């Protein structure tokens, strides 16, 4: 939510940046590289920030500009984007055009999938422009051709599940269509064809898609809410149900942590994390308390400062808890070992444990799983689609903090509803000027637009990561768009292929 | 953002004189109420006043005065906030359409500062205008929406500019046959609501008859006749904090089941609040049945001229009129 801001100050050759960033270490290396100075001379500080959502992990441009201006001015400089600057000058999700062809046998087994896709990357390349989703289905013949293309629009980059929600919208709309054409219930079709091994080859560290989907269908009362004949409600206000599922990367990797114990029995945890909103500092302290077997109140945390904290992988890719959290456990173990060997610290002494683990998966794939079930009501006279009921079932491994975990799912689902039904950065076709930069114009959801979202966790422990915790933050947005769109189809019997599914498009489709 | 001076006015005459003098000095001046619209336009460099003449410091212009007892009409000071207006007990009871319209505006924060006069006089929210395109409203000579993105633009009364009038309260005020008291440096005049707003054909640069040195002082609403009921229905693309895609203000004078007199005005479809006299005539003296409501809604859209991307407003408006009319007629 917080637009880009930065304060840069030079002290001789040393640069200090106060900036909201999803990764102090990346920010330091990128800025040092771009300025041609050694990384040690850049000090990045981020104690508090107003949200990240991906556009603060790949965008050190503002920091760089501020640093250069401060150098030029010979004085500290503060840069602050307006909301409009932020919409135009910082990347958003890449728009896509997707064409699918699916071959399926009479019994409903998928035989072949072909995707030809185009991703709009803006005027320069910041990301791959990939389109995810095909890997969700078990299929022997897959062809995927994705062309990232330059456009005259705002640059595209990471945004909560960079290549996922739009890709899943494409493929899961397509598969929903296939299920109806076969006369199959989309839930049965998914259960028959969904991935069981990653790309048909690699086993998952644990597998719970069946559970997520079956449990979701039962609690949601799918059979009762879903209409075998789409658009069959009588009267102008029609209901319908839709579902979509997901498997989302949950990789392991390198990060660091340091824990120190003083003679007063106080532990200090040093981690490079910043808190982009999910409560990372609390989670890190909770993990340390668990690993050390002490109450949370005994842990003090120092974070978000490159000169005081060790390396952190960055708060992106849904990996803060799994990667830095794992390092916290290892550092705590190292500290316990020291205490076992040398005893508790005495006098002015301290004991310090540190770790930079880089765990691997030995030929397996780690994924978070989930399924979303949505009921919508479409007013076919006024063209309004409204979510009535929303159920999200997720396997994110071990749930560390139920409160923040539930918020992550609700937040992602809400964003997905926004992407499905509301938000748009519209451009004037002739001049290429953006017309709806800002929360008013882009029609972001308000509290009143956000429905009640029910969350069910299917907890698991695959033996990896910190106590079996898997990725979470991005995954809740991933199936949301497709689930809402499929529900709209079930309600009105018209496949809405263009996001967002707004009033003009609904009334246009029904005209 | 350009810097400007703020001048607190203590009466309306002084305010208009100040604007006049500033202009005579070759500088630009703007009246400002809550500033919720004007300051945004200043920040976006759409307008660049040297002096803001603050009307909120004028005492007594934020009151609702009942003229001669409870039922013979009221005068509403232009500086009343939208929040106060929407909560006023007499307004709620006798002029529900106005209270409801005020209540649907934007957000509580904006209703707390935004004034009725400011709401009526707010500039268009067309994205071309607000993004600084050199359009008719910004002193240029084209309307970019005509061949551009016109999802939210006019289906009635458009050309050469295709904006829609953004004010919710304006729609209600036209439906109430209100009269606007306007004060200028050389005196004052009273303008019927229906004549206050002007089509782009008449002057594409502005939305109403106010000259640059004239202020909207107060709004007079005639008394509600017995059996009057009214309502405002607004269709929005989210639940709050946005202007109407389409709206309607309907005032019915009912005598048991029979509609004696109807006034129907549309918002979000034309550069001015769009009154439908031919539909009103269809309803006068009739019992409002399902069939009549459907016919009225059908007739309401006669002559609509949608642009490339806003044809959906035709069925939408039809649906809104049909439903609102039936619901209001059925109310007991
Ligand atoms: C995000 C957002 C959403 C909005 N949604 C809605 C909505 O749903 N419905 C709606 O109706 N409005 C909406 N608005 C507009 C809002 O209602 C207006 O900004 C507000 O009512 C203006 O009142 P004000 O007193 O703040 O006006 P100001 O900003 O002070 O003035 C607005 C304009 O009127 C002129 N003016 C003010 N007072 C007088 C006067 N007495 N005589 C002559 N000219 C005068 C000013 O010079 C200026 O040009 C929205 C605004 C925002 C920012």
Description:
The complex is a heterodimer of chains A (511) and B (332). In chain A, 30% of the residues lie in helices and 22% in strands. Chain A folds into three domains: 77 residues, 2-Layer Sandwich (Aldehyde Oxidoreductase, domain 4), CATH 3.30.365.10; 303 residues, Aldehyde Oxidoreductase, domain 4 (2-Layer Sandwich), CATH 3.30.365.10; 99 residues, Aldehyde oxidase/xanthine dehydrogenase, molybdopterin binding domain (Aldehyde Oxidoreductase, domain 4), CATH 3.30.365.10. Chain A has twelve helices and 15 strands. Chain A is globular, with a radius of gyration of 24 Å. With 511 residues, chain A is of the alpha/beta class. The longest helix of chain A has 23 residues. Chain B folds into three domains: 55 residues, Uridine Diphospho-n-acetylenolpyruvylglucosamine Reductase, domain 2 (2-Layer Sandwich), CATH 3.30.43; 118 residues, 2-Layer Sandwich (Uridine Diphospho-n-acetylenolpyruvylglucosamine Reductase, domain 3); 102 residues, Enolase-like, domain 1 (2-Layer Sandwich). Chain B has 13 helices and 13 strands. Chain B has a five-stranded antiparallel beta sheet. The longest helix of chain B is centred in the last third of the chain and has 18 residues. The mean pLDDT of chain B is 96. Chains A and B meet through helix 12 of A and helix 13 of B. Flavin-adenine dinucleotide binds next to strand 2, helix 2, helix 6, helix 7 and strand 8 of chain B.
